[in-house]
Design goal:
The complex is a heterodimer of chains A (620) and B (230). Chain A is α/β, with parallel strands linked by helices. Chain A is 32% helix and 18% strand. Chain A folds into four domains: 12-226, Rossmann fold (3-Layer(aba) Sandwich); 232-331, 3-Layer(aba) Sandwich (Rossmann fold), CATH 3.40.50; 358-526, Thiamin diphosphate (ThDP)-binding fold, Pyr/PP domains (Rossmann fold); 541-615, Alpha-Beta Plaits, CATH 3.30.70. Chain B has a single domain, classed as 3-Layer(aba) Sandwich (Pyruvate-ferredoxin Oxidoreductase, domain 3). In chain B, 40% of the residues lie in helices and 20% in strands. Bound molecules: thiamine diphosphate (TPP) and iron/sulfur cluster (SF4) (2 copies). One iron/sulfur cluster binds at residues 354-355, 541, 557, 559, 561-562, 585, 590-597 of chain A.
Chain lengths: 620, 230
């Protein structure tokens, strides 16, 4: 993305939390910002890449992004890094030690929790990291807050030489609200100062830094008691008082407009005495937090009588419509009358795109018997669903490799003849999969790896990565050569194949052959994700109705452009009853990948007349 | 320029009255307007809501917009919440509190109709987008989503926005047709929404301004016709 002129200071803009954070990072004079994409955090770096006068990058994983940001801080620059909640699991090895060295230039780490799991493999409360790493946690309640807290975060980071955690949730990242923006400040890099006792964390040096870390935390605890980021909003109705943080503060305010509310913007260290003062003024004090009872347990440990997860749900998102009935029930009142019931409608699970190159891979895997497929995280995780059902596990990024090796080494008698296949995308392989493949080759595992190189981070919207050969600005960058990379990791050259996933017979043959050989092998597929420029749509198809025999084979490809028009039952000459599905192709949606054509024996799928290009969009 | 927009630009306070629309006034108790726009990933639901948000913002309202998007880019369900008024706190619309439900797809409107308040209106594109799980025979598409909503007592304005767009020669106009249909259900004049739609094209694709104006008016007319028949 080319740099654009940022809106002038004092503009009032409709911004998502992610956009507001990006704007504030730029305003704070940050010179280096790095991230690996992940919902709901992706747009922070994506937006920042469009601002002038700072370096931005897509890193290969979150740990590297944090290390890059930290290095820039050592050099005396203000630095930023962003990730989704699970990213911090990856980055935490760096975090847990850089909390000892502390920072030079201000460092804010934004971590976005997918509360409610709209697009993640688990739900985690990143506020734990504040406790674990002894660093302050800031929790904005909306876009303006997010903007302002980034600026405050840099002041805090520099005055305490501490990395600051900005904890966001989906309801901050992806909510658009009005933000008044400011001007950019300049912060020149103060320069790197050699200081082994500080920067070289060998045991002797690290041990001397630990007391400093605790002393820093003690001073932060004092600050929390007086910080203007923690706001007491008084209220007349003293039946309940609330302690809350993050977007939950908005829900509380809406549900209980007359109650006193202590909103914690600096939510760790916890300002215990301010809470104690509030507790004295109200009948019952309720802690409203997403998702774990962190504040609640710490306040109780400090001897303050609070309620929380005993009356409120401990999983998923909070909202006024969760809070009101919960507290009404608790007070012995009737909850609000339940409204109209939701109508039962079929589910609409996410699907692979029309002509997605993964379609061919899963169609093929679904035809193979006696295999166990160790999966990974990306669009291709959808291969576990309808109609392919061709993925047997998904854990964490890169896990397909190690899990496959474990399945191989740990196999029991009943699995003796099973072939182990691992499926991994390009971005996931580069994030954390390479090490696992090295483990497979080094330990002589018997695994066939399908490396789905679609030259993009498809899952998060088609971002560039080292497989696309373009940087975060879309500028040319060195492109990784997967065939040579996996060979260097120990896969024999003759066990590496590059295959077009739109050619079903070739793919099928390659998989059949490689899974038969008791050696590590890698099959690389090489078609681009349809979201990126490298993808070229081809002439679309239609179904010749009179020729369609209703075999339904093409439906098994799973392309969303193929629709069943009518179902029938028929009896074969053998007497067996079969289900027939007659189909049509939504020609304006079809981009001519050819996959379904290869499954159609009677050649009923034929080229359609070339269409007016502009009509190749979905209706609506 | 409409008087209100002029007043806002001149720095005068925003109008706080809930409704300027005679045909469908919001209840006076309601100082926040709640609009839920639903459809599936790739249909432009979020963009449509964003344009509505921009129109409300230009009138000086506080605005919050949020999505529940189950992997929006992969054909999953998208529901986009828009709330505006003098001050908006929580961004989510509670079930039973939507003033207006806009369905870009029939079954999706049915899925979300319980979020309407009593007396709220459903605007629905009669287009059907059938997912692979239905094509695979695992589930059925509802036989008559519009009829089902009417039987439940909802006021439903149904029209083929996709067909209208096709007649105008450009399927992508479906979005603007839907916005036109919304225009007379807002607590501000339709022109304010039209202006927000056209503003997007003026800067990026000026050659499409006229076509979008026509699509917007076609959507308005389609909705008005439905308003008379129900
Ligand atoms: C530690 C971690 N970081 C980020 C994510 C978010 N995420 C899920 S899959 C994925 C990458 C998918 O890209 P790729 O492997 O190339 O597969 P594609 O989606 O293109 O098929 C990302 C970034 C995650 N789940 N876990
Ligand atoms: S975004 Fe790309 S990788 Fe993901 S389903 Fe679509 S085509 Fe496939
Ligand atoms: S050729 Fe078949 S599988 Fe490929 S996009 Fe068209 S309908 Fe889908």
């Amino acid at each position: 993305m080319a740099a654009v002129m940022p809106a002038p200071a004092q503009s009032r803009l409709l911004m998502s939390g992610n956009e507001a954070v990006a704007r504030a990072v730029w305003e704070a004079g940050v010179r280096v910002a790095a991230a690996y994409p992940g919902t709901p955090s992706t747009e922070m770096l994506e937006t920042l890449a469009g601002y002038p006068d700072l370096y931005t990058e897509w890193s290969v994983n979150e740990k590297v992004s944090l290390e890059v940001a930290f290095g820039a801080s050592m050099a005396g620059s203000r630095a930023f890094c962003a990730m989704k909640h699970v990213g911090m699991n990856v980055a935490s090895d760096a975090l847990m030690t850089l909390t000892l060295t502390g920072v030079q230039g201000g460092l804010v780490i934004a971590v976005a929790d997918d509360v409610g799991l709209s697009s993640s493999q688990n739900e985690q409360d990143s506020r734990f990291w504040g406790r674990f790493a002894h660093i302050p946690v800031l929790e904005p309640a909306d876009s303006q807050d997010a903007h302002d807290m980034v600026l405050e975060g840099y002041r805090l980071s520099e005055s305490f030489q501490v990395p600051v955690l900005l904890r966001l949730t989906t309801r901050i990242c992806h909510v658009k609200a009005l933000v008044t923006v400011g001007a950019r400040q300049t912060h020149a890099a103060s320069g790197f100062t050699r200081d082994a006792a500080r920067w070289v964390m060998v045991p002797g040096n690290a041990a001397r830094r630990i007391p400093l870390m605790y002393e820093r935390e003690r001073r932060l605890r004092e600050l929390a008691e007086t910080s203007p980021l923690n706001v007491l909003e008084p209220g007349e109705d003293k039946r309940f008082g609330f302690v809350t943080s993050g977007p939950a503060a908005m829900h509380v305010r809406e549900a209980f407009p007359d109650a006193p509310v202590l909103r914690l913007g600096l939510s760790y260290p916890v300002p215990v005495e301010r809470v104690r003062a509030l507790a004295l003024q109200v009948e019952r004090l309720v802690v409203v937090e997403e998702t774990e009872p962190l504040l609640e347990l710490e306040l109780r440990a400090a001897g303050i009588a609070v309620h929380g997860k005993d009356v409120l749900p401990s999983i998923g998102e909070l909202s006024p419509q969760v809070l009101r009935p919960a507290l009404a029930r608790w007070s012995g009142e009737d909850g609000p009358a339940s409204g109209a019931a939701a109508q039962a409608v079929f589910p609409r699970p996410p699907t692979l795109c029309v002509a997605c190159p993964h379609l061919g891979v899963y169609y093929t895997l679904s035809q193979l018997r006696n295999i166990v497929v160790s999966g990974d995280i990306g669009c291709y995780t959808l291969g576990a669903g309808h109609p392919w059902h061709a993925l047997d596990s998904t854990i964490s990024m890169g896990a397909s490799m190690g899990v496959a090796l474990g399945l191989d080494k740990g196999r029991g008698e009943t699995d003796r003849n099973k072939r182990i296949v691992a499926v991994i995308g390009d971005s996931t392989f580069l994030h954390m999969g390479m090490q696992g493949l090295l483990d497979i080759t080094y330990n002589r595992g018997n695994v066939t790896v399908l490396l789905l190189d679609n030259r993009a981070v498809g899952m998060t919207g088609g971002q560039d990565n080292p497989a696309s050969g373009r940087d975060i600005h879309g500028e040319p960058a060195p492109r990784v050569d997967f065939a040579r990379l996996v060979e260097a990791l120990g896969v024999k050259a003759e066990r590496i194949r590059v295959v077009d996933p739109y050619e079903l017979p070739t793919l099928f043959k390659a998989l059949r052959e490689e899974t038969k050989i008791d050696e590590p092998s890698v099959i690389i597929t090489d078609r681009p994700c349809v979201l990126i420029d490298a993808y070229q749509p081809r002439r679309p198809y239609r179904v010749e109705e009179s020729a369609c025999t209703g075999c339904g084979n093409c439906v098994e490809v799973g392309c969303p452009a193929i629709h069943v028009t009518r179902r029938e039952k028929a009896v074969k000459p053998s007497g067996r009853e079969v289900d027939l599905s007659f189909v049509r192709i939504d020609t304006p949606a079809c981009t001519g990948c050819d996959l379904c054509v290869q499954t159609c024996a009677p050649d009923a799928i034929v080229h359609a007349e070339p269409l007016h290009a502009a009509s190749v969009v979905r209706p609506g | 320029m409409p008087a209100i927009a002029a007043a806002v630009i001149a720095g005068k306070p925003a109008p706080t009255q809930p409704s300027l629309n005679q045909r469908r006034p919001m209840p006076a108790s309601h100082n926040t307007t709640n609009i839920l726009v639903v459809g599936i990933g790739g249909q432009g639901v979020m963009t449509a809501t964003e344009i509505l948000a921009e129109a409300a913002m230009a009138l000086g309202h506080d605005v919050k917009k949020t999505e529940v998007a189950g992997m929006a880019q992969r054909g999953g369900v998208v529901s986009s919440h828009l709330r505006f008024g003098p001050k908006v706190l929580s961004p989510q619309i509670a079930p039973g509190e939507a003033d207006l439900l806009v369905g870009f797809e029939s079954a999706e409107a049915l899925r979300w109709c319980h979020t309407l308040r009593p007396g709220g209106v459903v605007l629905v594109n009669t287009a059907r987008l059938v997912p692979p799980v239905v094509n695979g025979g695992l589930y059925d598409y509802p036989a008559d989503p519009v009829g089902q909503m009417r039987a439940l007592g909802y006021e439903v304005h149904a029209f083929d926005a996709t067909g209208i767009a096709r007649e105008l020669g450009e399927l992508r106009l479906g979005n603007t047709v839907m916005l036109g249909a919304i225009a007379d259900h807002l607590p501000f004049p339709a022109d304010n929404l039209l202006e927000a739609v056209l503003a997007r094209f003026r800067t990026r694709k000026p050659q499409f301004v006229e076509l979008n104006r026509r699509a917007f008016e076609a959507g308005r007319r389609a909705d008005a016709r439905e308003g008379q028949t129900t």
